[in-house]
Specification:
The protein has a domain of about 150 residues: 3-Layer(aba) Sandwich (Rossmann fold). α1 packs across α2 and α4 crosses α6. Strands 2-1-3 form a three-stranded parallel sheet, covered by helices on one side. A two-stranded antiparallel ribbon has the order 4-5. It contains seven helices and five strands, in the order αβαβαααβααββ. With about 240 residues, the protein is α/β, with parallel strands linked by helices. About 35% of the residues lie in helices and about 10% in strands. About 10% of the residues have low confidence.
Length: about 240
């Protein structure tokens, strides 16, 4: 939750370093992180291992915080499950006293995603508005956008969305957040924005919480700067081969 702002454990630091090595050849243009300490430390560890953007500024945003669990924060997961059972509800959808509802979490995710889309559109407009200036991606080495998990995707997914080594992106944004929050964000992508999913993804995988430092990759296309109809493709979900 939000109320117990603990640092990463020794295991957490090892996982964050592993994620950093996994993503070390990906050149990010922006990095956003939850302002909770464990996410800040994870973002720092990832950038610390990166070949291209060790000095990239991390922007901290409270909209990326974990779901607020109220009276259940700081207590074992078994306690939360017991509370849900006593209330006659399933654990994922149960809201403890003082906690956030799933709709409230999704609203935070929606607000932040729309902010990212606006950022991307403004970047493109800014680049195109410079007389004689090359595009943001002109001359960028393709290898800087190589994603290490492309071998986990089907050939059709790679060719149709261009997520292989030749990908040239206007923005390549790293977002570091939390498990329950990200599950809600992905739910928003799927149910509200009709995100295209990998063909082999099961319903249980879609609804599961990411493992610590699990990596998900989404390609967002805003045709003609249209913020109302983003085309979203999930390349991979909760990738954990680095762990």
């Amino acid at each position: 939750g939000q109320g117990v702002d603990e640092p990463l454990s020794a295991t957490g630091f090892r996982q964050a370093d592993a994620a950093g090595l996994f993503l070390s050849n990906v050149k990010f243009t922006h990095v956003f992180s939850s302002d909770l300490l464990r996410a800040k430390q994870t973002a720092a560890a990832i950038l610390g291992k990166n070949r291209f953007c060790k000095d990239l500024e991390v922007k901290y945003d409270a909209r990326l915080r974990e779901r607020k669990y109220g009276v259940a924060e700081g207590r074992p997961l078994a306690d939360l499950k017991a509370m849900a059972k006593d209330a006659g509800q399933q654990c994922p959808s149960f809201t403890p006293s003082g906690g956030e509802t799933l709709d409230e979490v999704r609203e935070r995710a929606r607000d932040f995603f729309e902010f990212l889309c606006q950022l991307a559109v403004e970047l493109e407009q800014k680049e195109h508005g410079k007389p004689g200036a090359p595009g943001r991606s002109s001359g960028t080495s393709g290898e800087q956008f190589v994603f290490p998990w492309t071998n986990h995707c089907s050939e059709a997914e790679l060719s149709s969305e261009g997520s292989g080594s030749s990908t040239v992106l206007d923005a390549n944004i790293l977002v570091v957040s939390h498990g329950a929050y990200m599950r809600n964000w992905i739910g928003y992508f799927v149910s509200d924005l009709n995100c295209t999913l990998p063909a082999n993804l099961s319903k249980s995988q879609l609804s599961s919480v990411s493992p610590n430092t699990g990596v998900s990759n989404f390609i967002i296309k805003l045709e003609n700067g249209n913020l109302l109809k983003p085309k979203i493709t999930c390349v991979c979900l909760n990738q954990d081969s680095h762990l």
